[in-house]
Amino acid sequence: GKRAPAAAAAAISAVLDDDDLLGEILLRLAFPTSLVRAALVCKRWLLHAAAPAFLRRFRGLHQPSLLGFYVVSTAIHPPRFVALPQPPELADVVRRGSFDLDSLGPDRFDLDCWNGLLLLSTFEMYPDRTMNPTRVRCPLYPARDTAILPTVPITSIHHDGFTYHDREILVSGSGGQCLSYFCLAIMDKEQQTVVDVYALQQVIS
């Protein structure tokens, strides 16, 4: 009776003491929150969980979950966030987030989502036909300040008979503390179309 528990403990120790096996076990945890708790077990587990190569594999295996969506009901009210049913671990994360947009006021604005970030731009156009600055919010980290992206720079092409048509902001990041914003501004004149690409890099603290 006493040998079985000892043998089981030895088998568990043999698995968890193997760095390769431990990495594979951590890789298969279902949620990032589970990985955080596992990283708190000991320094060795933390080093495994925080390794850049491991995190890249973890993100590749666990694609981001759809937490909810925004519903636009009227033109004078901000979109309303509707959370989707989630497992308990993710439900707790959503409850701690800040998805409410009422503080932005009654202005009509364009809403887009990229990698867990909200991109908010009002529809009002400046006289030079560039869009208003874009605000970037991270609902899952409400303590972070709202970042303000500058307007698209004015170049000579804006005053050369071109019509400012549209713009699209793309956000990329490696999951670390650095994000890159790429703004594609599209203008046209007669049979000619021009696409300007602007890049901005921000470090998140």
Automatic annotation (TrEMBL):
<protein>
    <recommendedName>
        <fullName>F-box protein AT5G49610-like beta-propeller domain-containing protein</fullName>
    </recommendedName>
</protein>
<dbReference type="Pfam" id="PF23635">
    <property type="entry name" value="Beta-prop_AT5G49610-like"/>
</dbReference>
<dbReference type="InterPro" id="IPR036047">
    <property type="entry name" value="F-box-like_dom_sf"/>
</dbReference>
<feature type="domain" description="F-box protein AT5G49610-like beta-propeller">
    <location>
        <begin position="111"/>
        <end position="202"/>
    </location>
</feature>
<dbReference type="InterPro" id="IPR056594">
    <property type="entry name" value="AT5G49610-like_b-prop"/>
</dbReference>
